[in-house]
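Figure 3 (text version): structure tokens given as input.
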């Protein structure tokens, strides 16, 4: 019987701790659209709430099985208490004032700010679903959006490689200052995941070490 060589996975392992199901399902949709560089293997972890993000991040980082570990979360509304606490915890964990700024991908006030950019330039200014429901219905046809699994799934199915490019152009024009309503640094993640170069991984890990 011939010896079989073990399969070697030479892809770069990217892990992202997602605040909740919207973040998880959105990134999963983009990953499987094939719009990102195939040299990256993405693992997503649903933290089931921002109160669990720090612990999930620390566990995954200390596991050492990934090339880089990132966080994707909302800022919610001012004074951003829980979001600021996450940033402080990450900085403290790494012993660096700049750690959070390189690993956290945020949306102010919520992830729907990014998702809705697949169809519109309109800004979302509140994390409250009842306030955002009319705009979400206009863009996606999903009425009375409450964040239910079936509603999220319908919206994700409407995300395509074509409107991904439209989203990309729109978020590029947004502020990346996390205290600005309607801001996000999601373009950073998009650029990283599209890139042929993996220098961004090394730069993040150099900042954390």
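Below: residues designed for each position.
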């Amino acid at each position: 019987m011939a010896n079989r060589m073990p399969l070697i996975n030479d892809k770069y392992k990217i892990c992202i701790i997602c605040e909740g199901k919207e973040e998880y399902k959105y990134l999963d949709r983009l990953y499987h659209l094939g719009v990102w560089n195939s040299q990256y293997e993405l693992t997503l972890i649903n933290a089931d709430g921002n109160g669990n993000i720090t612990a999930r991040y620390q566990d995954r980082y200390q596991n050492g099985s990934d090339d880089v570990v990132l966080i994707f979360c909302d800022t919610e509304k001012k004074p951003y208490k829980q979001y600021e606490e996450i940033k402080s915890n990450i900085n403290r964990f790494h012993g660096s004032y700049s750690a959070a700024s390189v690993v956290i991908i945020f949306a102010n006030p919520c992830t729907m700010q990014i998702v809705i950019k697949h169809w519109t330039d309109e800004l979302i200014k509140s994390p409250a679903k009842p306030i955002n429901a009319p705009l979400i219905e206009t863009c996606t046809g999903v009425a009375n959006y409450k964040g239910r699994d079936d509603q999220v799934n319908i919206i994700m199915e409407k995300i395509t490689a074509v409107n991904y490019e439209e989203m990309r152009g729109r978020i590029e024009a947004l502020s990346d200052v996390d205290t600005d309503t309607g801001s996000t640094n999601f373009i950073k993640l998009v650029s990283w995941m599209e890139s042929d170069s993996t220098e961004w991984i090394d730069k993040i890990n150099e900042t954390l070490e």
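The first helix runs from residue 21 to 33.
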